[in-house]
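Side project, low priority. Logging it here so it doesn't get lost.
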Amino acid sequence: MIKLFSFLLFLSLIIPLNSCQKQSSNIENNIINNDYLISVTDASNYELKFSKIPEKIVCLHLSCIDILAELNHPPIAVHNMLLNLAKSDIYFGEKGKNIIPISGYGEPNLEQLLKLKPDLIVGHLAGYSSQRNTLDAIAPVFLIEIETYEDAIDNLEKFANLLNKDEEFKVAKNKFTAKLDNYKKQANNEKIVLVTNGYKGNFFIATKESLLGSVLDELTNYPWSISGNNPSAINWVSLSSEEILTINPDIIFVLVKSPSSNLLGDLRKDSFWQELKAVKNNQVYPLEEEKVGGLTTGTKSLSAFLDQIMPLIY
């Protein structure tokens, strides 16, 4: 139960200028009294307005870290459960050495936030909509939501316009779409693929309604769906062993905290896992979280994830 609570908490965390240019994604820049008024609409359809570009940003969700890494704009602070990922090479590496961890369970430490005096706080719609009024007293709150790679690109564009990072956005978008197009040309729909965050106790599976699953559904045979199950904030679900065995995947990828040299051996000893084709055929691969950016909530981590798994599928 403690393991399940910890993972659900982690999910809630990885789940708040030029006036002559036309801006997309509901962002408009207008000159008023020689000052820029920047407005942006978040996933809750709430409009945030700024009199200047927000520099000091606090990330309470992994997608915020992913976006800011693409735009080369380190946050001043992140939730403490996200700190190691933020400092990993996928995101900020050495550039993230000064990122401050924010403590708190359920609600971030308000005293810490007050001392930091951020310009913007970013959290997931599902996890922080009920806390908007409280956090708004400290700084504007942008609530984010992401289910597809189109959502990821749209979120990235919103922040690029907000932070005046148009060139960084173009580079990141073009790099990601080129990679995706290349993998689509090599798509293999013969093998059934499964991505899970664990294999003992309560673990979650990426569904095709999640960011990662939506892409794998285009590149592979990826049948896993929410189908009435209660999803996490990023649309991963807990499936029964019977549901997994019925589909019987050909290839399994398991997210792990650290390298697991004996993962396949452990699965072969388990009465359930040893029945799966992937285990019988030695097609089970561990993926270190820090090398793939965690549970994948943006274009940067999705690129890293695809680079790890697609060569093994083809």
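Brief comment: Residues 15-180 form a domain with the Rossmann fold fold (CATH 3.40.50.1980).
Revisit when time allows.
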